[in-house]
Amino acid sequence: MDPATNRVTRLAPDVESTVCVMPAPETPHLRERCERLRSLHRPGAPLVLPNAWDVPTARAVVAAGFPVVATTSWGVAAALGHEDHEHAPADEMFAAAARIVRGVDVPVTVDAEAGYEMEPAELVATLRSVGAAGCNLEDTDHSAGSLRDPDEHADWLRAVGDAASAQDYPLVINARVDVFLGPFIADANASQDAFVSDAIRRANAYLEAGADCVYPIVLWEADGIRRFMSEVPGMVNITCEPQAPSLTELAALGVARVSWGPLLFWDATARFAEQLASLQE
């Protein structure tokens, strides 16, 4: 981030920066939003986060009574004409996040993917500039197409937290654990038992590094969630997959945060396609 221009300087490969990130609410207002977001993580009474992808959907989330807006990188990237997994230029993604922040009066937690290869201080400065109260940071190395080493990723998360502290910015970090994602994409109904131990080891390393919450994305099997909850002594985010336990059951398991990822975006685009098809009947 160039402080003189609020321009993100680290982008997708071979992409020149053409979009400046417009500043959003600054401290102390931003501090209040960060602390509000953090306070809403309560095991057994989870923060419910229907993910938005633009200003209209973010405003719809707020109008429906939800206290926080979470973005979905898949939906944001798609709305910008790109694929997920850091194929969208970072400056476009952060500019979209800034518009969402400016468009609502509640905390916004931003899906920052794997950090777009930014150094921790640069990433934190960018998130602060757009007004993010929190962020998701995943442990996939998109350039390598594999998971990051958990110890190295924990060190990176610690550096992100240290950078936020140095900037007097109480950023809420949701550390995403991606061990279930590849197998889930291959077969959404396959057993997840073989991956739970690795997920637990990663989650505990990320919590020890200072993450506020851990997010074993697409973990949906009740036994796996139960074991994960029993062996991870911290706030846990679960995706509300169709085959996952109900929201009431997740609360009973002690989950502190429930989100939908790209599911609502996919549902909305499918409904739009259905409406278009009906116009041709």
Question: Can I get a quick summary?
Answer:
The chain has 281 residues and is α/β, with parallel strands linked by helices.
What does it look like?
It is built from eleven helices and ten strands. Helix 2 packs parallel to helix 4 and helix 4 runs parallel beside helix 5. About 4% of the residues have low confidence. The protein is globular. 43% of the residues lie in helices and 13% in strands. The strands form two sheets. The chain has an eight-stranded parallel beta sheet. The chain has a two-stranded antiparallel sheet with strand order 5-6. It is of the alpha/beta class.
Secondary structure: elements and pairs:
Layout: H1 29-39, E1 47-49, H2 55-63, E2 69-70, H3 73-79, H4 90-103, E3 108-111, H5 120-130, E4 134-138, E5 140-141, E6 146-147, H6 150-166, E7 172-177, H7 181-186, H8 196-208, E8 213-216, H9 222-231, E9 235-239, H10 247-252, E10 257-259, H11 263-278
Parallel strand pairs: 1-10, 2-3, 3-4, 4-7, 7-8, 8-9, 9-10
Antiparallel strand pairs: 5-6
Helix pairs in contact: 2-4, 4-5, 5-6, 6-8, 8-9
List key phrases describing it.
281 residues, eight-stranded parallel sheet, two-stranded antiparallel ribbon, 11 helices
Distance between the termini: 51 Å
The description of the largest β-sheet is: 8 strands, parallel
Q: Helical content, roughly?
A: 40-55%
Overall residue-averaged pLDDT value: 93
Radius of gyration over C-alpha positions, nearest whole angstrom? 18 Å
